[in-house]
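Thread amino acids onto this structure.
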């Protein structure tokens, strides 16, 4: 892909990294993981006032339909550091026939299955690997439930960087095979993503690996926030009433919440926020449990199991940020069963011709539940996230 024309001059826009909990700041010109004071995620902070003065919505019209069109609010300063596999802007499909079957007129699907690497993990890893390249990192390590591993393996290969991948042995074969094909160093473990994370943490120092676990690395969330930018732009800078999002590590919710705050700060949208509905599986629902109990942090889930591998995340380091976004947006967190997910796998294909991943199907199952419970009114605009492609 040729370098988009707007990516010409290096510029100062990212200012600092700030802890999402205690607000301690860190130098973004150095590799950083979590806050050394409290162990929580670091978030990128930009020169928003300056950006507001110089950047207008009109400039987007002449830019390519890719996540890089939001350059001013992305953490890369030098265009030559960009590692891209062609991250297309994903379509927002009006699911009229699906909506009609459940009594809604405004159901929309943000179809992330069109991205490279087979899932929306491409957004986060495109950003993290580009930043790693900018920082001169050559050895990246990741614990993954599956799709993040595939995305890292492919972006790292494209950048000529080594990838060290740790994932459960029962990760979907698509992920295991694609990592092998891309030449990553793959270790399958007897355990879950949290166990894989522990191994990376224990070994990284001695091995010289940089940990790109989500939200322990500050830039994957910057990639995922572009879902919020695209959604706002595609809806004419008018956010929907409800977003239904399949939640594992919660990076997408944290990212979109951040995206909307940044768009408001530069004057591109108003105060309105969609209600964030976080969907998990009843076999692994730490965020739902915390939400139901009114807690501000989640307790690690034991014996996590679900057919939706992206949701098999027993513990999320950004739990407090996910719960804050749900609470402040007047949203909710709900669980669906694996049987609900299996049944919902047919709903978008049969009504709209859209194949879904199990995580995407979980949002359809959740939508049915929310409508049945009266939590969504028939005229409200609802956006479902189909976060990856169908893999047999
Ligand atoms: C990782 C993943 C999720 C969960 O995303 P988070 O933003 O980490 O909560 C959902 N669906 C799919 C297909 C995934 O790969």
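Threaded sequence (392 positions):
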């Amino acid at each position: 892909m040729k370098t988009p024309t707007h990516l010409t001059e290096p510029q100062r826009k990212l200012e600092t990294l700030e802890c999402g909990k205690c607000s301690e700041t860190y130098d973004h010109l150095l590799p950083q993981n979590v806050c050394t004071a409290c162990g929580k995620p670091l978030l990128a902070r930009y020169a928003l006032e300056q950006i507001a003065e110089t950047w207008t919505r009109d400039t987007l019209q002449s830019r390519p339909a890719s996540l890089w069109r939001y350059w001013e609010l992305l953490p890369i300063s030098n265009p030559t550091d960009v590692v891209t596999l062609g991250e297309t802007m994903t379509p927002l499909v009006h699911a009229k026939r699906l909506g009609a079957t459940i009594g809604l007129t405004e159901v929309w699907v943000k179809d992330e299955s069109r991205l490279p690497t087979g899932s929306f993990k491409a957004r986060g890893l495109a950003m993290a690997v580009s930043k790693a390249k900018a920082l001169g990192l050559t050895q990246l390590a990741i614990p993954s439930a599956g799709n993040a591993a595939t995305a890292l393996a492919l972006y790292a290969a494209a950048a000529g960087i080594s990838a060290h991948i740790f994932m459960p042995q029962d990760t979907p074969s698509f992920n295991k095979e694609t990592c092998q094909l891309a030449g990553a160093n793959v270790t399958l473990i007897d355990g879950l993503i949290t166990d894989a994370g522990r191994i990376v943490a224990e070994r990284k120092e001695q091995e010289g690996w940089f940990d790109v676990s989500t939200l322990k690395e500050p830039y994957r969330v910057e990639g995922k926030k572009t879902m919020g930018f695209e959604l706002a732009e595609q809806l004419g800078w008018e956010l929907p009433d409800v977003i239904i999002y399949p939640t594992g590590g919660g990076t997408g919710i944290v990212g979109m919440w951040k995206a909307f705050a940044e768009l408001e700060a530069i004057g591109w949208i108003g105060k309105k926020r969609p209600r964030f509905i976080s969907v998990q599986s009843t076999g692994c629902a730490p965020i739902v449990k915390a939400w139901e109990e009114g807690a501000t942090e989640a307790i690690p889930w034991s014996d996590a199991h679900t057919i939706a591998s992206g949701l098999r995340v027993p513990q999320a380091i950004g739990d407090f940020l996910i719960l804050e976004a749900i609470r402040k947006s007047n949203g909710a967190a709900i669980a669906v069963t694996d049987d609900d997910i299996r049944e919902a796998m047919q709903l978008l294909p049969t009504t709209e011709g859209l194949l879904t991943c199990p995580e995407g199907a979980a949002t359809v199952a959740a939508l049915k539940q929310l409508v049945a419970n009266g939590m969504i009114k028939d005229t409200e605009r609802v956006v479902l996230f189909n976060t990856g492609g169908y893999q047999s």
